[in-house]
Design goal:
Length: 144
């Protein structure tokens, strides 16, 4: 695993979160996120949103993070599968809040508004790095 590339890729602001409904309908949503050193991805969302409802039924999800590029040779990103859970304990919430506001300091001023949503954490069990700068279709996979 190339941890420098992974750290760089997790600096993008937005990840795509993929869930599925009880009937198996796929759903993808873009959400701001922040990663901690253990590769847990924290994000806020409305529990009444489609993905919020999906996660009540099934915690399994997939995420992807890719910086914008105009050339296929510059495509670099990360794909992950894992589980999402709502952050319940106050200490874990404060820890997640700290990670999130370190990346997005402006959110500190919006704490009351953001707190109307739920804090979630995505914990990966499979990771794939895609890096065309190392050759077309270059991939590296691992389990954290």
């Amino acid at each position: 695993m190339n941890s420098e590339i992974l750290i760089e890729l997790l600096q993008v602001s937005t990840m795509t979160l993929a869930t599925s409904s009880g009937g198996g309908e796929p759903h993808a949503a873009a959400v701001y996120f922040a990663a901690d050193e253990e590769l847990r991805l924290y994000f806020f969302s409305d529990p009444e949103s489609q993905h919020g409802q999906d996660l009540v039924r099934d915690q399994r999800a997939a995420v992807s993070c890719y910086p914008q590029t105009q050339d296929w040779q510059d495509i670099r990103g990360v794909q992950m599968r894992g589980r999402v859970k709502g952050v319940q304990s106050e200490s874990e919430w404060e820890s997640g809040w700290g990670v999130y506001t370190a990346k997005f300091p402006f959110v500190r001023e919006l704490k009351a508004i953001v707190a109307q949503n739920s804090l979630y954490v995505f914990v990966p069990d499979w990771v794939r790095l895609v890096d065309n700068t190392q050759g077309f279709g270059f991939k590296q996979e691992w389990t954290p």
